[in-house]
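User: Okay, second chain of the day. Same drill as before: sequence in, structure tokens out.
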Amino acid sequence: MEDMYALRENGLFLRKEAVAAGHTDRGLQRLCKGGELLRLRYGTYIPMATWKALTPREQHMRKAEAVILTHGQRVVLCNQTAAAIHDIAMYDVNMSTVHAHLLGTGSGRTESGITYHQAPPPDSQIVEWKGGLVCAPARAALEVAATRDLEGAVVVLDAVLLRDDVSKDDLWPIFESMRYRAGHLTLQAAVRLARYGAASLAESRARVLFVLERIPKPELQVKVYDANGELLGILDFLWRSHNLAGEFDGAGKYFDYLRPGETPRHVLMREKLREQRIREVTGYDFFRMTWEDLAQRKATAARLGAHLERAARQQARRP
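Assistant: Same drill. Structure tokens below.
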């Protein structure tokens, strides 16, 4: 079976290819039962070791490649599948099936691990990927956003605007073609709220919190320099008129930036020194948020609102 494992770089092969090479259905079944081989979808296999080495996103993309192997360009990969292919961040999205528009006639349905959608996009919103077809980034993000609540929709739209090949102006024409589907009012609100500069899923969720709870709109990703022009840091949020900086503290901040030989404690100390230098140079006060704060919207908004009022009073007292 090593000949089949080496057939493609991604490890995938078709049943008909294995049979043509002299392997049998019984042999394939035996390898699957023994845990060496995985039947990824109807007629498509992958070595189990290859599959287990993949991240959840990579596993979904491998399923998408399997669909291309069996369907070719008769489908256009779409929705969250297309967003995953373009590496667009999403929040709380079901990735259990591959999503695709079936070209030609056909009804919306889910079968054999594929969720089929009606009304494929125009050719101008389709790109090629690994021999198949996939919705372009802006279209993919809007398709995902159309199925989410306001928070989830803003997350994916903010994420797609971080790409060099997508701007806010690209979103509106696509929205117009989708505006009469279910949920179009939420989608319209999300397009209006989407902004370039939210550098993470958490920051996008926080922005929705600010809007829903009527917190003043902050500046995003504000760079702070000292008198010598040295970059001290980039603030997630800044309410400049209130002299208040906002920062999101996720676990990633203390694990993703570890240097060789460091522990999260070292990163924490570095973050405290960074904040202290910014305070000294700017006089900004700081408000920090966590994942738990995002889940407690009303309480977080009350704390932030009180912090903004206090910071504004302190700013007014300064000469």
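The mean pLDDT is 88.

User: Thanks, on to the next one.
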